[in-house]
Amino acid sequence: MPSTRYCIYLQYLVGVAMKLSDSTRARVIGRAEPGTAVSSLPLMGCRVRAGFPSPADDHLEAEINLHEHVVKRPAATYFVRAEGDSMLGDGIHDGDLLVVDRSLEPLPGRVVVIALEGEPTVKRLARCGGEVWLVASNPRFAPIPLAGRECHVWGVVTHVLHALPGGER
Amino acid sequence: MIALVDGNSFYVSCERVFDPRLEGRAVGVLSNNDGCVVARSHELKALGVAMGAPLHLLPPAVRRQAVMLSSNYALYGDMSRRVNQVLGEFSPDVEPYSIDESFVGFSGFPEGELEPRCRELRDTVGRWTGIPVGVGLAPTRTLAKLANRLAKREPAFEGVCRLDAEGEATRRVLEACPVDDLWGVARRSAERLALMGIENAWQLREADPRWVRSRFSVVMERMVWELRGRPAIVLDDMSEPRRRLLVSRSFGRLTGERHELEAAMRQHCARAGEKLRRQGSLAQAVQVFVRTNPFLAGEPQYRNAAVVALPAPSADSRELLAAASRALAAIYLEGYRYQKCGVMLLDLVDVERRQASLLETPEDDARRARSQRLMAALDRLNREMGRDTVRFGLPRRDNAWKLRCERRTPRYTTSWDELMRVKTGR
């Protein structure tokens, strides 16, 4: 069904766009409760510039905390590990750490963790022709129709943490 | 109004969140060292497996079709904390009563909105944590417990049941409830009540409180008031000593000092250990919780709890204390003024029914016998010479902590190396 595939791909592109707009619209819903091991870094008063530092930078304005930035709802947020490379197009590599928020709606365009016949899987949700599909970001994988399948959405992936050389634990 | 929220087959539900294949299957969770069953899915109950059943005595047919897991207290403790965090979004007044049960106070909330609010609470806990809960809403803790049981038993309630103090429905429910099913009524008291013609909760409710007090106790009188819809009992009276032991107390004044919390925790542990030995039980895990005063506006608020499993079922105060210290160290944060700290001993088993582990050595036996003698001497000193004659210091931080658990699932939420794995392709 080349036309369906095309349509899904379009949907996928729309999804990417939605994802971008989603992330820019993210708002802070609650204060993350820092765990014992959470560390924070001082936030400098202005952007890094070449040249002499501004004397105003001596004054630290706030502390930034990556955990709070990424985890909006601590009670509903879980970290999981991705396996496989069929979501590379969404920036998800094999072994990456995913931040999953269970409190978010699984809207079309979002990347979700979904239990497919009991197997936790990461895919992007897409709506096409009134039906919901799971699409991988690798075109080699055919979209999976959700209709008639035993599945339930586990949570919405909000961030990917990918370690570069030198950054692995 | 107050709600009792509790997780259905909590340990099993925690396991199912991270392994969806367990959904619909018979699943059991085993005590430390894989001795006996401490939690069952309803499918496992349907197979006739009793609570506390020793693993090695399960019929082969059951063992073939059921999934039996080692207990994963790190996971259960974290999921319990998450559930309480969600409850905190619905009311500032959340009182954890056990690892899988909490009271949520709704005083000051508009009456009419409470039932929809409880439904929303239930849905939210389910969505955010994956744990299915039942909610019993009533004017008192005793009635809330009854309502909670109905919510779980009768599918028509869809998980939320409200029980008012008056009304025909309440009467029917209380009449159908034998007194020894009530929270905090011991079997012996129930037998005495039956001799006086009081067999069900309705009859107890209708009894004269003064008469009940003179014949039984002030605790039983409070039960009468509770059944009539007037709150009369505090949380600490509501222990179910065969299953768990709770010792907690509010501080006289708020304190942010770590050593004061540690001192309170030591005292709670000692008290809990005494109670545990008096009733001939062993604990399998220790939960510690701390919280600030949620009603103080403008104060930074914090509440947290942690569970640490014991290496083997134990009634040795030193081991309880070592576990509790680890739990407290994991949750204590500076910069808050704490109002309350509590210690809960979980998943109690009888001393006589203790399952000898295959890995136990004669040295273990000798150590246990010595520990028993030491604790007996300690209890006698404190009984005869006065409370706190012998007290405990803090255990060393570096003592080894090894649990034997061959069937334990990954600690999905508390260990970087054991996170849930999700496939990208299929």
UniProtKB/TrEMBL annotation, chain B:
- Give the molecular function GO annotations: damaged DNA binding; DNA-directed DNA polymerase activity
Q: Name one GO biological process term.
A: DNA repair
Key word Signal present in the record? Answer: no
Which parts of the sequence belong to the UmuC domain?
2-186
DNA damage found in the keyword field: yes
Q: Which keywords appear in this protein's UniProt record, sorted alphabetically?
A: DNA damage, DNA repair, SOS mutagenesis, SOS response
Query: What Pfam families would the database entry show?
Result: DUF4113, IMS, IMS_C
Cellular component GO terms, alphabetical: cytosol
Provide the family line: Belongs to the DNA polymerase type-Y family.
Can you name this protein? DUF4113 domain-containing protein
Source organism per entry reads Halomonas alimentaria
